[in-house]
Amino acid sequence: MRHRLHFAFWLGFFPGSLSFPRIFPMNFSTQKELEKPHTYRTLDDSSPRFTDFQSSHYRTELSSQSARDTGYASGAVAGAEAWPSGGRRAIWPRFSVGFQPRSRFVYRAYNFAIAMTLFLMVLPLFLVITALLALTQGAPIFYRGPRIGENGELFDVFKFRSLDSNKAAMITKDKVLPKGSGIETPMGLFLRETRLDEIPQLLNVIKGDMNMCGPRPVRPEIAAQYAATIPDYERRFRVKPGMIGPAQAFMSHGTSKAIRSRLNNKLCRTEVSYFGEISLVFIVGACVVARTVSRIGTTVFGRRSERIEAARARVYDMRFVSDDGQSRAVFWVDEDQLILDQGNALNVPLLGRLTMLLPDGQTRNAAVELSTVQATAPNGRVQVSYKPKSEYAEHILSRYLFQAVVVPHRSEFLSAKLRRALTRSTAA
Length: 428
Prior knowledge:
Blueprint: H1 7-12, H2 31-35, E1 40-44, E2 50-53, H3 64-77, E3 80-84, H4 104-136, E4 142-148, E5 154-160, H5 165-171, H6 188-194, H7 201-207, E6 211-213, H8 220-229, E7 242-244, H9 246-250, H10 257-268, H11 274-301, H12 306-313, E8 318-322, E9 327-333, E10 337-340, E11 350-357, E12 363-376, E13 382-388, H13 391-401, H14 414-427
Parallel strand pairs: 6-7
Antiparallel strand pairs: 1-2, 1-3, 4-5, 8-9, 8-11, 9-10, 10-13, 11-12, 12-13
C-alpha cells in the first residue's frame, strides 16, 4: 500500500537528541556478503514487485564495484529497503517519495500552497536572518545564480548569501565549493550547516521554478562535468528541481555523486506520493530545527566538532574486524585515525571492516584499510591511520559514524528512544 507510514514517524519524527546520526538501514550481515556478486533488490512500499539493481544497468564508466555501491546506498533511501537476494525484510515500512506527478496542474497547485504556507510560517525568521546579514556582512543579502531547471531551462536560484562573492566566483568557477575553503561570511558557515541559507528557495517554489521535492538544482558547468562521467545523469532534468529531496536529506554532502544520481534517477521514474512528500517535508523541517539548536549550543559552549563528537560517541560498540577474522575493539576515532586494542601485533597495511552497532541492534559495516601506525602504547593499544576502501564505505562512515546527514536513522527518533527506555525500565 502506497501511503503506509509507521505510526512512530508521526509521534516521534523529531530527533531525540541534537546530533545527526544514522538513517534508513540496510540488512547486510557481513562485509564479505557485501562483496558477493548478488543481484541486489529493493521492495518499494508502493508495489509488491521487486526491481533488480544490477551492475549491467551501468555503462562501462562505472566498475562493477562502483555499480554495486550505488545500488546499495540508493536502494536503502528511495522509500525502499535493500538487501542481498533472500535477505530479511525490515520490520518497519518505508514511506514512498517520487518526482513524477499524475497531474501537473494539481501538483503545481499543491507545491504553491505548501510553499506559501511555509513561507508565511518562517517569515519572522526570514526577516531576522535578513537583518543579521545586513549588520554582519552588508549588501548583497541574497545570492542569485543560474541553475538548470526542467527540460534544461535556466532559472535563478535564491539563497541567503553565505560566501565571499569574489572569492567564491574564483574558487567555484568550474567545481563545487571544496570542504574547508574558509570563504564564508561571518554567519555563512552557520547558515550553510543548518541549511537555513536555503529558506529563500521557497520563493523559487512559489514562482514555479522548483518543486518542494526533487533533485537539487545544479549549475550548468557542474552538470556538464557530471553528465560526462555519470551514466544517465541528465534524467534529473526531466523534472523540476526540488528544495529538498531524499538525496539531500538522507545522504551526506560528501556522498558520491554517482550514488546520489542513482537515487535521483529512480525517483524521477517514480510517481509522486503526496503523503510521503508531506511526511518528508515535516521530518526535514524538524531535523533542521534540531540542527540549528545544536549549532547554537556548539557556538555558545565551544564544543568539539559535531562530526568528531558523533564518531567518538560510537566507539563503545565499534570494532575493527580484519580480513583474517581477528576482531579488535576501537577505543577512539576521528576522520582519518583510530585507536585499536591489541595493536602491538598489527601489521599494516591491513584490510578489514569497521563494524558499528546501532541503538536498535542493527549493524553497519564499512570496508577500510589501515595504512600507517602513528603511535603505540605500553598497554597494547595503537593509533593508526585508516581510509575507506570504496564509495559505499565512505558513504556508510559519513552517515552512520560521523552522522553528517540531515535526517537521522529512525532508531534516533524520540519515539524509539522512549521505547528503549521503557523496555529497560520494565526489564529492571
